[in-house]
Specification:
Chain lengths: ~300, ~325
């Protein structure tokens, strides 16, 4: 039981937090701009490399240097939106999907060119885990990731329900025509969607890069579970995406637990198929997701 | 000597270009005619490649088979297995809307890749399958075998082109375009939309399988890392968009144009200073990504735009 918590549940919540933060952006972009953003994983990569570069120059813990990664992800997201996505906005959204597929490759090849294609680490060395009540052994990073994600979730919830901008974003997501008629500035909403999406993507990217190591495919490999999380939570429902991300993360990790026999229920090499099966099952039986998202 | 070298370089470009042309024709059925977004091309390509390799290699302990059958059986098996895989996928995913189908197909490609890497008994895992025969491998050696293979590939391109063209001009093709352009009205006209989409997806995947088989017989060796899956998928998409989606001739033209461009840049990047050579493939990737953005914004109808086939009335 202790093993289950230490080795499956907590790592599951950690990777789930990464999925959650990425899925918020995907869900909001899908809700407001109405397309599946295939470059979101690579936006995470770009943000994470921003922090990695800052670590080389400033001797501070990587998590304190997050603003550098967020800033880089901002610039990248706003630039591709301005130059690549906005000219296609009047066309069927599938063209923007194709475009974002290309942007994913552009981001990745830029990362490979700038930061090399090998593995890099944020902070060398091993940190001792936190030991609670002599039984729970939790890596410091995992504890930090889970706590920060929960704080972000609360802040996001307050922003979306209490601030005027947050309410405008929900309005555009729920009923775009009505929102436009009511005089909401759609372009401003779109801009802020990118700002929030990019900030959370950079944060998630750094978490993922610190948990394993930094390489240019980091974000792309996380894309599928993040889509699954966004669908699970309901498109256009940021809080749903957070819950979806945590569920997918825990499901992936615990699927490899020795549930029914001495062998792993699902071999860990097939772990990443779990998210896919959850997503497809959901798309068939409950496409609006757990929290009644939009049906596009 | 220089000239013959250039000639054989040109031939290798044309062989790979032909294989890409087949992939592009297949995607044109799915996307150009049917409007189905398949982002898992590399998955079906790999299924075809492995099927044909297993069917045609000599018996071995390392992976399933080698059944040592003639190559035409390998190509047919590749089409069937890739088609059946496509059928299983389409059965579940084809009613999903475009964006969701895109996500699902990325997932499918990923799962197929996992199976290929992990199922040692089937594919020999990451060590790969070697000794895949080439057609007329006994008759021709060395460079003349390249000439023979070039002919084989382009004969198959021609066959696939004729099939695609017939499909395009047939009532079946018209129905597909009707569904693509206005699903509701096609449904109202009594067309079984899901059934048509299923057929489209299966036919496209089967052809992608044939392309995979051809690449396996060309390189004679197959491993999970032999092709970068994302690159194949992405290049085929760029080719179809640049060539003109919805037009079979456009699909072939796009494949040849983009593949020549891709190979030509290799010549230039090889002259870069050594510290840049390792990065040259990333530069090319970046350029192709930018090219796609240009095509999407300024050149959407492509080199040879879609043209509705003429409606012929029977003379009485």
């Amino acid at each position: 039981m202790i093993d289950f918590i230490n080795l499956y549940l907590v790592p599951g919540l950690t990777i789930g937090s990464v999925y959650a933060l990425g899925a918020v952006g995907i869900s909001m972009i899908f809700g407001i701009l109405r397309f599946a953003h295939f470059a979101h994983g690579d936006l995470m990569t770009i943000g994470a490399y921003g922090v990695l570069t800052a670590v080389w120059f400033i001797p501070l813990p990587p998590l304190l240097l997050l603003p550098f990664g967020i800033a880089l992800a901002f610039v990248a997201a706003l630039a591709v939106d301005r130059f690549f996505y906005r000219p296609l906005r009047k066309l069927p959204t599938i063209y923007t999907v194709i475009s974002s597929f290309g942007v994913a490759l552009i981001f990745r090849s830029l990362a490979q060119l700038t930061w090399s294609s090998g593995n890099q680490v944020f902070v060398p060395g091993v940190r001792p885990p936190l030991v609670l009540f002599d039984t729970f052994r939790i890596a410091t990073l995992h504890a930090q990731v889970i706590v920060i994600t929960l704080v972000i979730a609360v802040a996001l919830h307050v922003f979306l329900t209490r601030s005027q901008l947050g309410r405008a974003m929900r309005a555009v997501s729920d009923e775009p025509e009505l929102a436009a008629v009511a005089g909401l500035d759609t372009e401003r909403v779109v801009r802020w969607t990118w700002v929030i999406g990019a900030a959370l993507a950079a944060t998630a990217g750094v978490f993922a890069g610190m948990d394993t190591s930094m390489h240019p495919n980091l974000g792309w490999n996380l894309l599928l579970p993040m889509f699954a999380a966004a669908v699970l939570g309901g498109i256009g429902k940021p809080m749903g995406a957070i819950a979806g991300g945590l569920i997918i993360g825990v499901a992936e990790e615990t699927a490899t637990y020795t549930w029914f026999s001495d062998e792993a229920f699902i071999p860990s090499s097939y772990k990443s198929a779990v998210a896919f099966f959850i997503m497809v099952t959901l798309l068939i039986f409950r496409p609006q997701g757990l929290f009644k998202g939009r049906l596009l | 000597m220089e000239l013959t070298g250039l000639l054989f370089y040109l031939m290798s470009v044309l062989i790979a270009g032909g294989i890409y042309a087949i992939l592009c024709l297949a995607l044109n059925i799915q996307w150009g005619m049917g409007g189905l977004f398949n982002a898992g091309i590399a998955g079906f390509f790999a299924v075809g490649a492995y099927t044909s390799a297993i069917v045609t290699t000599a018996a071995t302990e390392k992976h399933l088979g080698g059944f040592d059958l003639p190559i035409p059986f390998g190509l047919a098996a590749a089409a069937i297995v890739a088609g059946v895989t496509g059928w299983a996928v389409a059965k579940i995913c084809v009613r999903l809307k475009s964006d969701y189908l895109a996500m699902a197909s990325v997932g499918i490609a990923e799962i197929l890749r996992l199976v290929i890497v992990n199922e040692q008994w089937l594919t020999n895992g990451s060590l790969g399958i070697s000794g895949v025969p080439r057609p007329f491998g006994d008759t021709f050696q060395g460079r003349s075998s390249d000439i023979a293979y070039l002919t084989v590939v382009w004969v198959i391109v021609a066959v696939v082109y004729i099939i695609c063209q017939r499909l395009n001009d047939s009532p079946w093709g018209r129905t597909l375009r009707a569904i693509r352009d206005n699903e509701a009205s096609a449904r109202a006209a009594g067309k079984d939309v899901d059934w048509f989409r299923l057929q489209t997806f299966v036919i496209g995947c089967a052809i992608m399988g044939v392309a995979g088989a051809l690449s396996a017989h060309y390189f004679k060796f197959l491993s999970p890392s032999a092709t970068e899956p994302l690159l194949v998928t992405f290049l085929v998409w760029v080719m179809l968009m640049a060539g003109g989606s919805g037009n079979n001739r456009g699909a072939i033209a796009g494949a040849i144009a983009i593949w020549s461009l891709w190979s030509m840049t290799e010549i230039f990047t090889n002259r870069l200073p050594p510290e840049w050579i390792t990065r040259s493939s990333y530069i090319r990737m970046l350029l192709v990504g930018l090219l796609l953005q240009f095509v999407l914004q300024k050149f959407r109808s492509g080199l040879i735009p879609e043209k509705s086939p003429p409606i012929r009335f029977r003379d009485k």
